[in-house]
Description:
The chain has 16 helices and 15 strands. The protein has 485 residues and is α/β, with parallel strands linked by helices. Bound molecules: 5'-O-[(L-methionyl)-sulphamoyl]adenosine.
Amino acid sequence: MDKRFYVTTPIYYANGAPHVGHFVTTTAADVVARYYRQTIGNNNVFFTTGLDEHGTTVEQSAIKEGYNLKTIQKYVDKRAVEWKKAFEQTGISYNYFVRTTNPKHEEFAKQFIQKLIDNNDVYKSKYYGKYCNGCEKFLTLSDLNKEGYCPLHRPDQVVKVEEKNYFFKLSKYAPKVKKLILENKISIIPESKREEILSRLGGKIEDISISRPKEKVAWGIDFPNDSRQTCYVWIEALINYISSLEITDKKEFWLNAHHFLGKDISWFHNVIWPAMLLSAKYNLFKGTFIHSFVIISGEKISKSKGNIITPKELIEKYGVDGTRYVILSNFPYINDSDITWGHLTEKYNADLANGLGNLVSRVAKLCEQNDLALSSDTNVKPHVSYSSQQGGYHVHIERFEFNLALEEIWRDIKDLDVEISKNHPWDLSKEKAAQPLQKYARELINIAYALKPFLPETAEKIEKQFRGPKIKSEAPLFPRLPTGR
Ligand code: MSP
């Protein structure tokens, strides 16, 4: 692989506080960023996340909270502080936090759109149809449910619009994009999501509107050469993936870009974005990783249903690493994943309190009783089995199969547990116990190394505990929790 890795999350609408769903993509991106920092070095990894701050949905929520067009910047500033804090509290190691109201992004986005215009790929026409304010999307017939509404948002979010807009010639580029996907020049993981896109590209592709009249959407960037129109928020938002590199002077990362996102916005990233890049004559990104959704007790997470789980609630209950673990071990790789509190707590107790936590306490206690320490020159390399087993830890992470990579580690945890129970070192003399105990301690450092991208704090604690001059018992890593909510 190239010696660089650029991973991005979608930029989230600055219209509310973050919920657990937003942490699915962000935590996944964080794991790969940490993993590649470990394997190819800190300077070769760049990881962005952040906020999409323009458009109707942001404008409407700001107005609901008493802001107006003149003060709305204050509203998004407040949201940015809130989101940054939430990401920092959950150990998200982003390199750059995107904000689309950054004037440098605004300027870059305008120049980018100008390139589409210069290339004769933009024309003025009339749009007539439905628009979902929640998705910020012009709806096609296939986007609508049986009742004629958006399946993701409240019916009052869908409005009929008839307006004169600028259009982008998506139809011109769709066959080229299809070819690039077929040739895997744009990789889409997993395969089922790739097929979905290819099948939709088999149908008729219409051009898309890329501006809105200012009287309808004022909170946006002015369209190039026409201040009566604002840039359609999605078009501007996608450009963040390049403007971030421009702003931070990291342009060299572009060819190694991997976009992580949920299934709801696959079309924008896999079809519209490459078409824009082709038109503006930019190189393409490497690929996308599309996951499904976490749902709660069988229902979509939604503000109006009030079934939101916030990152704060999760951290209060499970701690930072516990939260990362319950999210990643329930990762909605192909199908949606149901995360009721009871289910999360069960998983936490079984794998963290009992599994990993018990094993660490058990080995530490035995080492302490036997006055054992690892010699300081013990150099532990990542376990060979992680790469050689079928699938294997590394292969799973490189394919973004986080839950499977975790299963590999937990298999080692179980094996070590079984080995200790079989050998009962507690019955051995100090001299005889030394060798097996050294082996278990080394094995735990190995496990900690593999855990690092997933549970960074825990990995560090284990390393410290077992590498110090003396191995000592410590408080349990993960206190057992009462089951239920
Ligand atoms: N602003 C656009 C994205 C622009 S990217 C150039 C947007 N924002 S959003 O706030 O609606 O975030 C959507 C993303 O949040 C999804 O694609 C997904 O990555 C994440 N998730 C939101 N809810 C989720 C779940 N319930 N489960 C998993 N991920 C979810 O769309």
